[in-house]
């Protein structure tokens, strides 16, 4: 709903104030939250008058009372994520024209593990062919060799 109010001063000034119901969105600091990481959710609200303060809930109830979860103004901060933080977080903002809310489903992924260095040799390198023979004479060059069941012979001349 959009409402307008007009006030005049000295017959020359006109002031227009547009009132607007709230609209909210949640901005997250991580795309893929993992255990042990820091995560900040910000509830961005727009409207006139400004919809302050915003209210955060988890799974339809109050936020858990943990030292790791901090609410400051529009921000909900997790200082060190763990699996118990999984759930649906809701941000709600109101002014006298209405209420708006949006949700963010948090799924905390396992922390990445460091794999030990591989002891398996690479698959692509080809060892040198021990059967290659090189014989040269003053005017010609002959190279012979075999790889598996194939025998190769190359001849050339030296100038």
Automatic annotation (TrEMBL):
Q: Which gene encodes it?
A: CADM2
Record-linked InterPro entries? Ig-like_dom, Ig-like_dom_sf, Ig-like_fold, Ig_sub, Ig_sub2
| Residue ranges annotated for the Ig-like domain, each copy included | 22-107
Q: Which residues form a coiled coil?
A: none
Q: What is this protein called?
A: Cell adhesion molecule 2
SUPFAM superfamilies in the cross-refs? Immunoglobulin
